[in-house]
Sequence to fold (344 residues):
Amino acid sequence: MTIGKTDLGPRPVLLAPMEDVTDASFRTVCKRFGADMVYTEFIPSDGLIRDAAKAIAKMKTSEEEAPIAIQIYGNNPEAMVEAAKMADRADSIAGGHGCDIIDINFGCPVSKIAGRGAGSGMMREPDKMVMITRMIVDAVSKPVTVKTRLGWDEESKIIVELAERLQDAGIQALTIHGRTRCQMYKGEADWTLIGEVKKNPRMKIPIIGNGDINSPQKALEAFERYGVDGIMVGRASFGHPWIFREIKHYLNTGELLAPMSVNDRVELAKWHLSLSVGLKGPVIGILEMRRHLSCYFKGLPDFKETRMRLVTAPSGEEVMAILDEISAKWGSCPLNESSSVYGL
Fold:
């Protein structure tokens, strides 16, 4: 699968953009485990054009993460175009690698975004969505892609026709989440319409499927049953970034990898913590790691008290000490067989 000049290889597996999750440290971890492309957290166009420090900081990327897409959202056409131009020059504005692709978020369902007409709120204004897309394509040098949903609700699943219009506006790939905005993340993702878009003879751009890819078996089904060019993994990567290696191993061999051992998870947590602290400092870096640390050891017996200590420890030294305790106490837990293939 190729987007512009970016060759992602056959059956690529991508990390979905997730607010407060896919920061630089997590993206680097997922790349280590085989994600073929990663996305920034979605960045508000209004914040970028106001030169808001937080929005600018989210555009900073590194060579280690490449290829990477910067994702922007908003509903004001002029602001979206200016934000896209800034993303196009992210290397000079925010420093680092910049981006290989500019992605437009027309899919976020949360009320504070969709309720203002941005994200999946744009599904109620498809003409405006297409207009903004065309304006951005014409304004930037990087390839432009879109991430969206099936429609606003069950009565307005417009994705088949909308996909054609977005392609005609000049995008070079389309990611479709198999739910409507009103579904949020409830129920099962419906991949049938994603498959219809892919099978549409008018569609020439890559189609990436998203929604409920939480196992290697579901990844294979997405490719074989629905014919998508790539898949995107979101929530299933949270606390489980090695899912990318599991999926790619299964796609290539048809075999499941052994579960990742507790000791390997401890080493991963330490590395992830060091990345976070290095990028954001000892206070913010530790605070923002807590959401990950609470998930890395799901399934361990009698772990509640240790988890509470792990996510409330105020210093990196204390977190490291607790991680060593976890390794000593649960490292040989028979529920998690060791596997050397993870490379950590």
